[in-house]
Amino acid sequence: MPSPLTLPRNVRDAFREIWSEEIADDFTGWLDTRFQQRAVPREEWNEVTGRLDRLENEMTVRFEQVDDRLDRIEDRLNQMDTRFYTVNERFDAMSARFDERFDAMNARIGERFDTMNERFDERSDRIDEKLGQMSEQIDRMNGRILSMTRWLIGLLFFFGTMVTVLLAVVQLTAA
Predict the structure, then answer these.
(1) In percent, how much of the chain has pLDDT > 90?
(2) Which one of 77, 155, 163, 174 is least enclosed by Cβ atoms within 10 Å?
(3) Rounded to whole angstroms, how far apart are CA atoms 51 and 43?
(4) How far apart are CA 165 and CA 156, in angstroms?
(5) How many other CB atoms are found less than 10 A from the CB of residue 15?
(6) pTM of the model
(7) Are 18 and 24 in contact (CB under 8 A)?
(8) Does residue 39 sit in helix, strand or coil?
(9) Has residue 157 been placed in a domain?
């Protein structure tokens, strides 16, 4: 049985009909040599496709992990939003109570009101600082996620290119 990397007999016969026997033999010999030099052996092809399958499975797992992490981040952000809404509602309720008290005791609480405003300003500044820090942390995290996404897209592009090249080689050897 002829090697899968050599030309079939009917192709050789067709070249012999077109050209002289010597030229056809030289050309088919040259073509056989080129095919053997450029073709990928079946074992190597199976090994490469096996590796690509493992890489695909690994990338699927990685994407699932990234999705899980993004879901956890989103849950944490939702929890933070809920906490902030609760704090805001509490501040609103406290403000309403203070307004009622200030209306009733305006004369006696003038100085205390100023003191309370200073305390609220300090607390507000602390909250603003914490919110600013959290915003910076979220921005850094977003940058890291963007970087990871770019790397993943680059890797997928690279693997896609590799698969395309390998498919082209297979098509050349099959033709």
Answers:
(1) 43
(2) 174
(3) 12
(4) 14
(5) 19
(6) 0.33
(7) yes
(8) coil
(9) yes
Q: Which domain holds residue 85?
A: 75-174
Q: How many domains does the chain have?
A: 1
Query: pLDDT tens digits, residue range 45-102?
Result: 889 899 999 999 999 999 999 999 999 999 999 999 898 899 888 888 888 888 887 7
Distances (CA, A) of 66 to 123, 131, 140, 155: 37, 26, 17, 15
Please check whether residue 6 lies inside any domain of the structure.
no
Residue type, 26: D
DSSP-based three-state secondary structure for 106: coil
* Cα gap 62→149, rounded to integer Å: 11
Here the tokens at position 45 are 């092809």
Residue 19 in any domain: the answer is no
Give per-residue pLDDT as tens, 117-145.
888 899 999 999 999 999 999 999 999 99
Which residues, including other chains, have CB under 8 Å from residue 162's CB and lie 6 or more apart? 52
Structure tokens at 148: 């990871």
Mean predicted confidence (pLDDT) in 29-50: 83
Q: How far is CA 80 from the centre of its chain?
A: 25
**In the structure encoding, which two tokens stand for residue 2, read together?**
């002829």
Whether residue 109 is contained in a domain is answered as: yes
